[in-house]
Write a structure and sequence with these properties.
With 227 residues, this protein is of the alpha+beta class. The chain has one domain. It has 3 helices and 11 strands. It has a 6-stranded antiparallel β-sheet. Strands 1-4-6 form a 3-stranded antiparallel β-sheet. A two-stranded antiparallel ribbon has the order 2-10. The protein is globular. 35% of the residues are buried.
Length: 227
């Protein structure tokens, strides 16, 4: 997708944006090739689906619909989202730069297969099967409780990454972290720096954070492919 970003002096910047040092709570290194810090123990995990309505308020950095979709998809993939994620931005102002775009996000991420989570997923599966029988439909195969090996990794988002994340994306990350990434279980690494966004300015070094994530373990030869 083509990314389009425009800096516009926004009058709304005066709304206490908190030029802010923000410490997000999330996962792994989102550079061109995410770096994994050491080997972490493997845990059994399941895919858990989430849905969000995310509205972006720019104070100096703005995106087109396709540009915002591309940024959000890239960030979610880096923190471990399943490859079938969907991000759709409402283009109220045509296909160009959007002032206050809203994205509908459907994404599945790994979660540790605890007894409590498995019981909840099994209950949800029973409800879906009951609805399907009432509607006379085939419920199909429910893989919500299918387990797979996962490991914790640290992903780093650093500004000035060509065609991916740059310091101008500070505001986007500042808003995505608490509204989307934290609810997905992503946490800020203990040794991480903070986001330092400045309204109406692109400050060098504004984006330099390390996030802790749970990600599906890479498949080895002879391992059936995941979803």
């Amino acid at each position: 997708m083509t990314r389009c970003r425009l800096r516009i002096g926004a009058a709304v910047a005066s709304l206490a944006f908190a030029a802010a040092s923000v410490q997000p709570a999330v996962a792994q290194t989102a550079a061109d090739a995410p770096a994994v810090a050491g080997s972490a123990p493997t845990v059994n995990a399941v895919w858990v689906e989430h849905e969000f309505m995310f509205t972006y308020f720019g104070f100096g950095t703005y995106y087109s619909c396709l540009g915002l979709e591309s940024k959000i998809e890239y960030i979610l993939k880096q923190v471990g989202a399943r490859k079938d994620l969907r991000v759709r931005v409402s283009c109220i102002e045509g296909e160009g730069i959007q002032q206050i775009p809203t994205a509908r996000i459907r994404v599945a991420v790994p979660a540790e297969a605890t007894p409590e989570l498995l019981a909840k997923l099994a209950g949800d599966q029973s409800k879906r099967e009951l609805v399907s029988r009432v509607q006379g439909k085939d419920a199909g195969v429910d893989v919500a409780t299918a387990q797979f090996p996962a490991e914790r990794r640290v992903v780093e988002f650093v500004g000035r990454r060509r065609d991916h994340i740059d310091d101008g994306d500070c505001e986007l990350l500042h808003q995505l972290v608490p509204q989307v990434l934290e609810p997905l279980g992503v946490r800020m690494a203990k040794d991480s720096a903070r986001l330092t966004c400045v309204p109406r300015q692109v400050q060098i070094g504004a984006v330099n954070i390390r996030l802790e994530t749970l990600q599906q373990k890479p498949e080895t030869a002879g391992t059936p492919p995941g979803p």
